[in-house]
Amino acid sequence: MRISNPVLIKNTYYMLTYAFKILRQQSFDSLLSENFADVYDMFAEIILKALSRQIKHGLYKEHIITKQSNSILNNSINDNFTENNIYNQIIKTTVTALLQQDNVLQIRKNGLKKILINFKDISTIQPSAINWRRLHFCRRDLNYDLMLNISYFVLDSLQLEYTDGSFQVTSFFDEKNMEKLFEKFVREYFRTNFRFNANSKSIRWNLGDNNESRFSPKMQSDIILKKDDKTLIIDTRFYSTVLKKYYYDLSSIRSADMYQIFTYIKNFEDLKPGKLSGMLLYAKVDDSVYPDDKFEFCGNYFYVRTIDLNKDFVYIKQQLNSIANLLINGKRETDF
């Protein structure tokens, strides 16, 4: 289902500015005043501006070594550089996909078509053939990092029709894409605005003197916030429906979410009653019922909070700032 919600799209852009610091640079300032009617129109403008910057410096060239054998006794090695590499192929495929979307404004399509002239020697790639986890591009190149991440959001939310090679929109605002962006946004928000030590950290099983079994499942927290001697473990979640519905119209937090945050707390290396807390932080888009709760268990506090992405970003900041007060002021029951 296609969602055209100006407030949600604007908040998505704000989240992107935290997730990717380069969007806060002056060359992207004009995006703040844009009122995008569609999320793919926004992605098209981001890609257009990022590519316009990149063309001035040149596209990334990958080093390839080719060996030529003129004779058994005479071998020569040629060092070559090519723009036709996986990274540029992904970007060209993304531009091609955006050009096929009806809700991308024609002025942006015209700009993208001009950009494509610089990609004439670069191939496209089938999105299903991209192994995103094995891409290891230099993170110091913030412009390429931005373009490749936007490409992921675009291509992952499009279906490729193999019959005619065209792209058909599903929805960017699904659970996988939005949960990934929401997690990164929340982590970077606390780093940027409060200078917190905010990291995603692997938590070891607290098995006493026994060594951790190689069969133990991996525990990878979303966000661990630290301030002085206080720690808050946050597990971010995005569901189309936040609460799980059961018989007789009863609703509750998903049991798997509760088990996970409890497990993080009880296995965390710095287990200190009153100094360690856990939180389930949900992102809400179109659900009318959402959780807001707090309780104590075995000396540790647990919170369940929901950020409404359909509200003005000022309100979202207020909610996140109130979470930060847990660590700054050491407040508990009266925080929210």
Question: What features would you describe in this structure?
Answer:
The chain is α+β, with helices and mostly antiparallel strands and 336 residues long. It is built from eight helices and 14 strands. The chain has helices spanning 6-19, 39-57, 86-99, 106-116, 142-156, 175-194, 255-267, 313-328, and strands spanning 62-69, 75-82, 158-161, 166-169, 197-199, 202-203, 219-220, 223-227, 230-238, 244-245, 251-252, 276-284, 293-297, 300-308. The chain has a six-stranded mixed beta sheet with strand order 5-8-9-12-14-13, sandwiched between helices. A two-stranded antiparallel ribbon has the order 1-2. A hairpin with a 5-residue loop joins strand 1 and strand 2. Helix 2 runs parallel beside helix 4 and helix 3 packs across helix 5 (142-156). The chain is globular and about 65 Å long. The model is unreliable at 332-336 (pLDDT under 50).
